[in-house]
Write a structure and sequence with these properties.
Elements: H1 3-28, H2 32-55, H3 63-79, H4 85-107, H5 112-132, E1 142-143, E2 151-153, E3 156-159, H6 168-191, H7 194-204, H8 206-211, H9 216-242, E4 244-245, H10 252-265, H11 272-286, H12 294-308, H13 321-325
Antiparallel strand pairs: 1-4, 2-3
Helix pairs in contact: 2-6, 2-9, 2-10, 2-11, 3-4, 3-5, 3-9, 4-9, 7-9, 10-11
């Protein structure tokens, strides 16, 4: 009964994102919006990893660290090691997942408060490492990162080199939105799989889940590794668009914003981070004209939203036809 509705919603999403939005931007002549929407897509990918940790009952305030690490790994592989951008994407994500496993092995066996405190300082630690390590070029960062090259197979070019596109921002827009779509589709499938059901059991009662034979620490580490992989992936795509990365590219504020995206969209919904990112990104830009009161109003609206809609924007339900008839 629900499957046709889901397919219809997916079809509408694909038509809007991949057809209607580019046509509208072309008609308006505002090609700068491609960069803005690409940024929204990448922030949504990173926020989806934070949402996954909330899904198992843990608070991750350090996703900015993995976005920064993923960006640096991709930049180093592309500029220094001669790797293609496309190969650097999974390698950046896997590197971040490996680091998260090293962090999670001792910490995720403890209560949630310890994990939250560790992640709170993780982004700043990553920034300081980027400033100190010679391979990251310190405060100068890594610049002049080449655009993604072509992808081919059996002599057939599947994806042309981005330098050949007349409108390169459009190419990055499609790259970012396609990756966002794939990441959220994979996350949706994960949440509704057997592993996802185990995650829900852990969120509700870890002691009961453990008594049922679930290896709770191992499942926590698995979720954290997936979360960090998504953060690293978003950071790797970001450096291709910006063609540079610096220690300040992702800060503690970004890690906090990744959490807020999940809250605003809805912690009980897989696609909450996507909607939350879109609303908060453009909401902040709309308040820019207010000047010195921008942060005050933004904070007030955030508090109000959490009071009125504690389960996020996706918790809003339109009245059904049956209810309207009554």
């Amino acid at each position: 009964m629900f499957r046709p509705l889901r397919l219809a919603a997916l079809a509408v999403f694909v038509l809007v994102v991949f057809l209607a939005v580019p046509l509208a931007i072309k008609a308006a002549g505002r090609t700068d919006f491609y960069y803005t929407l690409s940024s929204v897509a990448l922030l949504a990918i990173a926020s989806s990893g934070v949402w996954l940790m909330f899904h198992i009952g843990r608070i991750n305030i350090g996703q900015g660290a993995f976005a920064l690490m993923g960006g640096y790994v991709s930049a180093i592989l592309v500029t220094s090691a001669g790797f293609s951008f496309w190969l650097s994407l999974p390698l950046a994500g896997l590197f971040c997942a490996a680091v998260s496993i090293l962090i999670g092995l001792p910490i995720l066996r403890l209560r949630g408060v310890y994990f939250a405190m560790v992640t709170l300082v993780l982004t700043e630690v990553a920034r300081l490492l980027a400033l100190a390590l010679p391979i990251t070029n310190g405060a100068k960062g890594i610049t002049s990162i080449p655009a993604p090259g072509a992808i081919g197979a059996f002599g057939v070019t599947l994806v042309p080199a981005f330098d050949t596109f007349a409108e390169r921002n459009l190419a990055f827009y499609y790259l970012s939105t396609i990756m966002m779509t794939l990441c959220f589709a994979a996350l949706y499938r994960l949440v509704h799989s057997r592993i996802g059901k185990l995650f829900v059991a852990m969120q509700q009662n870890e002691e009961l889940a453990s008594s049922m034979g679930i290896n709770v620490p191992a499942m926590r580490i698995l979720a954290y590794a997936i979360s960090s992989f998504l953060g690293g992936l978003a950071g790797a795509i970001f450096i291709a668009i910006a063609q540079s990365i610096y220690p300040s590219s992702f800060t503690v504020n970004d890690s906090v914003n990744f959490m807020l995206n999940c809250f605003v969209g809805g912690l009980g919904h897989v696609f909450g981070p996507m909607l939350g990112t879109l609303v908060l990104y453009f909401g902040w830009d709309l308040l820019f004209a207010i000047g010195q009161y921008q942060l005050l109003i933004y904070s007030g609206v955030m508090v109000l939203l959490m009071l009125v809609l504690p389960n996020g924007l996706l918790s809003i339900r339109l009245p059904s036809r049956r209810g309207a008839r009554k």
